[in-house]
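Margin note: ligand = glutathione.
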Amino acid sequence: MPVATPAKRPPKALASKPAAPKSSVARGVERKAVAAAAPVAQLTLSSKNYSSWSLRGWLLARFSGIEFAESMIAPDDVDARRELLLLAPSIRVPCLTHEGARVWNTLAIAQYLNEIAPHAGLMPADRIARAHCWSISGEMNSGFVNLRSALPMNLKAHFPKHKIWAGAQPDIDRIVEIWTECLATYGGPYLFGAQRNMADAMYAPVATRFLTYDVKLNPACAGYCQTIMAMPEMQQWLAAAKVEPEEIDELDMDF
Ligand SMILES: N[C@@H](CCC(=O)N[C@@H](CS)C(=O)NCC(=O)O)C(=O)O
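Resulting structure:
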């Protein structure tokens, strides 16, 4: 489980429940256990409601099974941005630091996590499936610009009957084609079969957008969106996003 270390504003959703009083011996044992288990990895993120790349990086880290601390940077915090520059020259999130390594691109994070947690199944074991997985993950990383700008991630919002801008439709059509082919080839419920992997982390924020903006999908793709939303990690992220205080007005209106 990740440990939250907020940089400036503590995310309320991550506050832990008050614990029952413990004896001093029990507290000592607990302190040692906490010290031994302190995560060596730190994942820098911004908004849980709006930052789709943060969600991708966080899902990858959770799928990998590594222990990590979250460091939250408010999107409008100039000082925090300066600190981020020391970690990520791109001044973008997500950024992972781990045992001297700094990794600041989602695909690079996936590759790095796969190296340190090779048995977590972040990438398919089969060479041909792995090539397919990298190809569609790369397509997400570098493409679908119209979809990303026309339908920004906003987990708190729901815009039923949203009118999709025609420029975004080819992106939606291509994603439907990718998902339909994967689900038919590997048998679902995830893109590469029974085990969720890098590709599911890459496309998870697309599933949320399709639901937020009421995008009409074929039954296989609609089912895939539900599979993504039902993942326990996704539920945890959504719960934290829903109580985040930051609001970006332009993204909250029905446009
Ligand atoms: N393809 C990049 C995209 C990273 C990205 O665009 N991150 C956004 C957050 S959603 C960001 O940090 N934008 C700069 C900002 O918020 O100021 C990656 O894989 O990490």
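The longest helix spans residues 169-186.
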